[in-house]
Design goal:
The complex is a heterotrimer of chains A (367), B (308) and C (653).
Chain A lengths: L17 E12 L14 E12 L3 E5 L6 H9 L6 E6 L2 E2 L5 H7 L3 E4 L3 H4 L6 H11 L6 H14 L16 H13 L5 E5 L7 H18 L2 E6 L2 H7 L2 E6 L2 E7 H6 L4 H11 L34 H8 L5 E4 L2 E4 H5 L4 E3 L5 E4 L13
Parallel strand pairs in A: 3-8, 3-9, 6-7, 7-8
Antiparallel strand pairs in A: 1-2, 1-4, 4-5, 9-10, 10-14, 11-12, 13-14
Chain B lengths: L1 H21 L1 H4 L4 H6 L5 H11 L5 H10 L16 H36 L4 H15 L2 H15 L11 H31 L2 H8 L4 H39 L4 H10 L3 H29 L1 H9 L1
Chain C lengths: L1 H8 L3 H5 L6 H9 L2 H23 L31 H37 L1 H14 L4 H12 L3 H28 L2 H9 L3 H37 L11 H8 L8 H28 L12 H9 L17 E12 L2 E13 L4 E5 L6 H8 L8 E10 L2 E2 L5 H11 E4 L3 H4 L6 H10 L6 H14 L5 H4 L9 H13 L5 E5 L7 H18 L2 E6 L2 H7 L2 E6 L2 E7 H6 L4 H9 L41 H5 L5 E3 L2 E3 L9
Parallel strand pairs in C: 3-8, 3-9, 6-7, 7-8
Antiparallel strand pairs in C: 1-2, 1-4, 4-5, 9-10, 10-12, 11-12
Helix pairs in contact in C: 4-5, 4-12, 5-6, 5-8, 5-10, 6-8, 7-8, 8-10, 10-11, 10-12, 11-12, 17-18, 17-20, 18-20, 20-21
The chains are: A alpha/beta (367), B mainly alpha (308), C alpha/beta (653).
Pfam family, one (chain A): oligo_HPY
GO biological process, one term (chain A): peptide transport
Subcellular location (chain A): Cell inner membrane
Chain lengths: 367, 308, 653
């Protein structure tokens, strides 16, 4: 273990320009007895011991399937959920040190943009009212005139016209609604935008507009982005660093070029293999299919949580002489089923993969 | 397994209900014995009533005595008739049940059929007529409807007896009158839930199998919509038991509802207490039964229960 | 019913559904546009006027007894007759309106003021507060309502004021329950989370976001409860336990008339009538409010009807002269298909002249955005388009050489069974939740076949095995919710394949699934296709998926196919500006990280509001406002071995 660890699981080393520092944060649900209920609810480890940091002005992407815990992680960063263990630090302030009022004030710095703009705007408020609410809550730009000024400035920034201000969300198109949602997020000059699947509910031809808008805003306002998505193409386009999440943990994290260009964890490898099949010429090659589906977070597999689906483990198990055991999901190396893997840094240290065999990978093959 | 669990969760409710009914006498503002005895009573009289009510006993003894009254004829007697409350209630219960169950059954059948008719042709003439009728049914005071029916069928036409409970014919009018409300409720419920089910993709899956439209509707859509109807049926049955208070008065049927009304107007507290307790226990068990039936009809809730 | 009809036939139901009224005036307008609403509102206003001015309008003293004129029939002097004490019934009804309706108003307000805060509090605080409130409500609901009210009267004594308390207490649990339920559903809305993450305080969230959004439902509930409260309060009066004589109240008056029902039936008629109509008025108003505020109460779906099938048979399905003949041997052949939604403004064209062929063993992907008409097209080919919502106005559809339009029900079922299999986007919705997988599969296998029970079961097991579901025998007895999303989609595919269809129609079969599961389903579909040689029609918005999976592609825009051909040909070099832009605007292509994406200006057009000439013109980068683009809808032509509908397609060659 003498390899350099820029982002060890055990604790992130904060640097001066890191806006978001998540240090070994966990969020477990349930486990408490409810009133009038005899048994304790089972524990769901939605987020388990996750660490990462995001330097100012960059974009960090969390990639994962449904049930991977990526939304819970995002809500830990926004402060909508409190970690059951670990710490989230925003702009040098640890969220656990804040009382509810302080936390609300802190929220000015971290804003959330949700997937479905239809649902994320109050149907009974005009766009103007929605935008003003942010200013009222944080007592910014007091006075009618100043407020109107600010609202108009922001609305222009996101590419809407003042004519849209008097409208209700249902009177706008999908793209316009998402622009309004972004306007609400940036109106009180936050440091961080947490983008939860920001384009996946939009029409394909509108998605590019919003992606460009987000890029422009990041450059203009020096924003730091935390983007949650399942779309690896979007990650490659927007993000600087990425964490690939599986059952509440990062299986691989690091620079986007490194993780997406030369994935080292078998899970990332299979995701990238699917994403790479976009050219018609590739379609006659047999696809790598990951078997099974993501296990329930109520029953996370022992050892490496990916071992129940891992193609690498299957291949290794086929090699004679290895220490193999039989599980319900097939034959896998004993280490995979029993030992929890540790993060392993890539040569050069620009990414880490949490796999027993990351140090000595078998050649990736598609057969 | 689930049955026991559900029974277990009903116990606290039953306990709370019995406590509430038990403290009922204490909720009466002022000294109940004083009120019972009347303004002219002497202190001795009041004291004897206190003793009779057991107001001087410790709370726990009183509660035990109260619970014993549910089956022990000697434990509670009516102020008015001085007969055991248990006897008074059990004599009248069959009449009440006949009317409630009969009314519910007819309401269920009529309501379900008319609901299906509505849903099959929304906007059609049948739908319009039934929708108007259901609205009228829900808005109709059953005591007025009862009076009108007595006047028309018993007085004018002379087909049926007007009051009493001696022959089966006596029960026809009350059952029909009391059936209007559940019939109207079911009709709307079945129609809305059927129409809701009709928007689901699984009906198109069924159609793509080549099934007939009748089978698609009755086997696939109706089954799903009945789940909602069953839980309402439970509440309705409770409502019918409550409604017996009014119907039995209108039709002069000697039932528990009538007994309760008489007891309230004459401040016969033991009878009031046990009649209310009986209604509440019935209601709790009916809710239990409907929960179990819903559970059985809807596999999703079965597993939810198992999971939690 | 008219509102229900318009909702049912609006072209984009989801857009119509989330419409929430702007202000009270909008509510009023929508209220009076319904027959129920206008009648209910008028009656309610009349009743309220009666309650306010009734006593002043009474022609005679409602309390003056006149033993010379007891129990008189209605006459000019006494419009509604006189009662057993010779009092004027008409005057008593006018005077009694205030007590009767006042009890209703008082009871509902009492219940509202206690129940709603309790319910909102329970939903907001959760935890033990909610547990205690809900348990208390359970206990209260254990008493039939009129019995509970009787108990309250027994404790407090019979009087108007106590009846208000009694009926009010009875309604508290109803308010608390509903308030909790609607608050919970509003709190689950993303905009609440958005507001909290903005830093809004709990009080602000409740006052600004929760209360305005639940007010409509609560208003509806209050109106409906008012009707039932009125009835139970008057019921107490009828039993002699409400308003005490000599004060008039309609229920009490009814109770007094009971003894005279044989001899003087009109005595019961008028109070009963006033009571019934007032309950009706509030029920009507409540129903009308509900159609405005409760989206689930609306009748959005309508069944196909026998009559309409007949009507459709007579619909002009005759091909026009310009249509090409269907391709021989094609599994699906569509010619000149036009479809239109019924709406208030008349027919809105959603499919505008589509020609397509799918040969056996091939996969055609129809790509388009929302509103392009792609799903409507798929449903039409699947013979599942709801004739009440959308009509085929022109063109032909042939499946396996048989026309799919204008069939009698029997023939239609036969066609569906033998030739068509359908897979939907949301597998959870496509399976009946209350039937086991085995029952649903059996149905698909058994319909129209003569297999015995054992053979049917074996076939079901084989089918599940075919779609790679392990342990099929045990799985047959399981219910859909016990499977994961991917497994459910496999089951839907198994059902679709049960009778070896000629064509499998798949409407976004993987877009609700995770990437890795998506891949599994696609591989499965391809394998099934290879084994069975069936045609697949895949509807999707995802060009990457098309590249991975389809043989042929048809790009749909505003109801027309703008570019179609072999996937390799079309995607290697796209000719239509829309297809080009779609390809170029997807991230992850050649643009490189952080570079700007090429975008398409504007948004997809709404159905029925298409621009003149070429529908894509306002968003087109190639058009440069050339007059040809304004003048006509470009014809579909063969350019560089694919069909393309652009006047200047050659410019891209």
């Amino acid at each position: 273990m003498n390899a350099p660890f820029p982002m060890p699981q055990g604790g992130a080393i904060p640097q001066d320009d890191d806006v978001i520092v998540v240090d070994a944060a966990s969020r477990h649900f349930g486990g408490r007895r409810r009133l009038f209920s005899a048994v304790a609810a089972p524990v769901v480890r939605a987020v388990d011991h996750v660490s990462f940091r995001v330097p100012r002005g960059t974009c960090f992407a969390i990639v994962g399937e449904s049930g991977s815990g990526k939304s819970s992680l995002a809500r830990l960063v926004v402060g909508l959920l409190r970690p059951t263990a670990g710490e989230v630090t925003i702009d040098g302030v640890a969220l656990s040190t804040l009382d509810p009022v302080g936390l609300r004030a802190m929220r000015r710095k971290v804003q959330l943009v949700l997937q479905d703009p239809r649902a994320s705007l109050d149907p009974r408020m005009t766009i103007f009212d929605t935008l003003c609410e942010a200013l009222t809550v944080h007592r910014l730009h007091p006075g009618r005139e100043a407020r109107l000024e600010r609202v108009k400035a922001v609305i222009a920034l996101v590419g809407l016209s003042p004519a849209h201000l008097g409208r209700y969300p249902h009177e706008l198109s999908g793209g316009q609604r998402q622009r309004a949602a972004i306007a609400r997020a940036i109106i009180c000059e936050p440091e961080v935008l947490v983008l939860d699947e920001p384009v996946s509910a939009l029409d394909v031809s509108v998605q590019a507009q919003i992606i460009n808008l987000l890029a422009d805003l990041q450059a203009k306002l020096a924003l730091t982005y935390l983007i949650i998505t399942h779309d690896l193409a979007l990650v490659e386009h927007m993000a600087d660093t990425v964490g690939v999440m599986y059952l509440g943990r990062f299986v691989e994290q690091g620079d986007v070029e490194q993780v997406c260009g030369a994935p080292r964890h078998p899970y990332t490898q299979s995701l990238m293999a699917i994403a790479a099949q976009i050219e018609p010429l590739n379609r006659d090659q047999p696809a790598t299919v990951l078997e099974g589906s993501i296990p329930s977070p109520l029953a996370i597999p022992s050892g490496c949580s990916f071992h129940t689906r891992c193609p690498l483990a299957r291949r290794l198990a086929a090699v004679d002489g290895a220490d193999i055991i039989q599980t319900a999901d097939g034959r896998v190396p004993r280490r995979c089923a029993e030992d929890v893997p540790l993060p392993h840094a890539a040569p050069g240290g620009r990414s880490t993969a949490t796999c027993h065999f990351a140090a000595s990978p078998l050649p990736v093959s598609h057969d | 397994m689930f049955v026991f669990k559900r029974l277990g969760s009903a116990l606290p409710t039953l306990f709370a209900v019995s406590l509430l009914v038990f403290f009922f006498v204490d909720l009466i503002p002022g000294d109940p014995a004083q009120i019972l005895a009347g303004p002219t009573a002497s202190n001795e009289e009041i004291e004897s009533i206190r003793k009779f009510l057991g107001l001087n006993e410790p709370l726990l003894t009183r509660y035990g005595q109260f619970l014993r009254g549910m089956w022990d004829p000697t434990a509670a007697t009516s102020f008015r008739t001085h007969r055991p409350v248990v006897v008074e209630l059990s004599e009248r219960l069959p009449n009440t049940l006949i009317v409630a169950i009969g009314g519910l059954a007819i309401g269920l059948i009529v309501g379900t059929i008319s609901g299906i008719v509505c849903a099959l042709r929304p906007g059609g003439i049948a739908d319009m007529v039934i929708t108007l009728l259901t609205l009228a049914g829900i808005s109709m005071p059953i005591y007025w409807l009862g009076l009108l029916c007595i006047w028309f069928f018993a007085v004018n036409l002379g087909w049926l007896p007007a009051a009493g409970a001696t022959t089966p014919a006596h029960f026809v009018l009350p059952i029909l009158v009391i059936a209007t409300r559940p019939a109207a409720m079911f009709s709307r419920l079945v129609a809305t839930s059927l129409l809701e089910a009709m928007g689901k993709d699984y009906l198109d899956t069924a159609r793509a199998k080549g099934l007939s439209e009748t089978r698609v509707l009755l086997f696939h859509a109706l089954r799903n919509s009945l789940i909602a109807a069953v839980s309402v049926a439970g509440v309705q049955f409770g409502g019918m038991l409550g409604g017996s208070v009014v119907t039995e008065t209108v039709f002069g049927i000697p039932g528990v509802g009538r007994l309760l009304v008489d007891a309230v107007s004459r401040a016969d507290y033991p009878v009031i207490q046990y009649a209310i307790l009986m209604f509440a226990f019935f209601f709790v068990f009916i809710n239990l039964a409907t929960d179990l039936i819903t559970q059985w009809l809807d596999p999703r809730t079965r597993d939810e229960e198992r999971a939690t | 019913m008219s509102v229900m009809n318009t909702v049912a036939s609006s072209p984009a139901p989801d857009r119509a559904l989330d419409f929430v009224p702007k202000s009270r005036w909008t509510v009023l307008r929508r209220l009076v546009s319904q027959p129920k609403g206008i009648v209910g509102l008028t009656l309610v206003v009349l009743y309220l006027l009666l309650a306010i001015f009734g006593p002043a309008l009474a022609p005679q003293d409602a309390f003056r007894q006149n033993f010379a004129q007891t129990l008189q029939r209605p006459s000019a002097a006494h419009w509604f007759g006189t009662d057993q004490l010779g009092r004027d019934v008409f005057s008593r009804i006018l005077v009694g309106a205030r007590a009767t309706l006042g009890i209703g108003v008082g009871g509902v307000s009492f219940a509202f003021l206690i129940g709603v805060p309790l319910g909102v509090l329970a939903a907001w605080r959760r935890g033990w507060v909610e547990a205690v409130v809900m348990r208390a409500i359970d206990v209260m609901l254990s008493f039939p309502d009129i019995v509970f009210a009787l108990a309250v009267v027994a404790i407090l004594g019979a009087s108007t004021q106590n009846v208000i308390i009694a009926v009010g207490v009875v309604s508290i649990p109803v308010f608390a329950r509903t308030a909790r339920a609607v608050t919970l559903s509003i709190l689950a809305e993303p905009y609440i989370e958005g507001s909290i993450s903005l830093g809004a305080s709990p009080a602000r969230v409740i006052l600004r976001h929760v209360l305005p959004n639940i007010s409509g439902m609560l208003m509806t509930l209050s109106t409906l409860l008012f009707a039932s409260t009125l009835l139970s309060a008057s019921g107490l009066g009828f039993l002699g336990l409400g308003t005490q004589p000599p004060h008039p109240e309609w229920g009490t008056m009814l109770g007094e008339s009971r003894s005279y029902i044989r001899s003087h039936p009109y005595l019961a008629t008028f109070p009963g009538l006033f009571l019934a109509v007032s309950a009706l008025a509030f029920n009507l108003l409540g129903d009308a409010l509900r159609t405005i505020y409760d989206p689930t109460s609306r009748r959005t779906a309508r069944p196909a009807r026998f009559l309409d099938l007949l009507r459709r048979k007579r619909a002009p399905a005759a091909p026009t002269a310009a249509l090409l003949p269907p391709s021989p041997g094609a599994a699906v052949s569509v010619r000149g298909l036009r479809m239109a939604y019924h709406s208030q403004e008349g027919l809105l064209e959603v499919v505008r002249g589509v020609d397509l062929d799918i040969m056996p063993g091939r996969t055609l992907a129809v790509v388009g955005e929302s509103g392009s008409g792609k799903s409507t097209l798929l449903r039409a080919i699947g013979t599942l388009a709801n004739p009440q919502e959308v009509a085929v106005t022109a063109g032909t559809i042939e499946i396996g050489g048989e026309s799919a339009l204008g069939l009698a029900p029997e023939a239609l079922r036969d066609l569906r069974r033998r030739k068509i299999g359908i897979v939907f986007q949301d597998a959870a919705n496509a399976l009946n939740p209350v039937l086991t997988v085995g029952q649903q599969l059996t149905e698909a296998v058994q319909t129209g076949s003569s297999l015995d029970a054992a053979a049917v079961r074996q076939r079901c097991i084989d089918l599940l095995g075919d779609v790679n579901i392990s342990d099929p025998e045990r799985r047959l007895d399981m219910y859909p919710h016990q499977f994961s999303g991917g497994m459910k989609q496999r089951i839907v595919i198994a059902i679709a394949l049960a009778q070896d269809p000629d064509v499998l129609l798949a409407d976004e079969p993987t877009s609700a699934l995770d990437v890795t599961i998506q891949q599994q389903i696609l591989v499965l579909l391809r394998e099934m296709q290879r084994k069975r040689g069936m045609a697949i029609l895949l509807v999707t918005h995802d060009l990457n998926l098309v590249a991975r999976f389809a043989d042929d592609v048809a790009v749909m825009y505003a109801g027309r196919l703008v570019e179609s051909g072999h996937v390799a040909t079309v995607l290697a070099r796209t000719l239509h500006p829309y297809t080009q832009a779609l390809r170029a605007s997807a991230p992850g292509g050649a643009e490189g990280r952080g570079k700007r994406l090429l975008t398409i200006a504007g948004e997809p057009p709404m159905i029925g509001a298409l621009p003149s000439g070429c529908a894509f013109r306002p968003r087109c980068q190639r058009s440069q406002n050339r007059s040809q683009c304004f003048a006509e809808e470009p014809a579909i032509r063969l350019v560089a071995s694919r069909q393309v509908a652009c006047c200047f397609a050659e410019e891209a060659c």
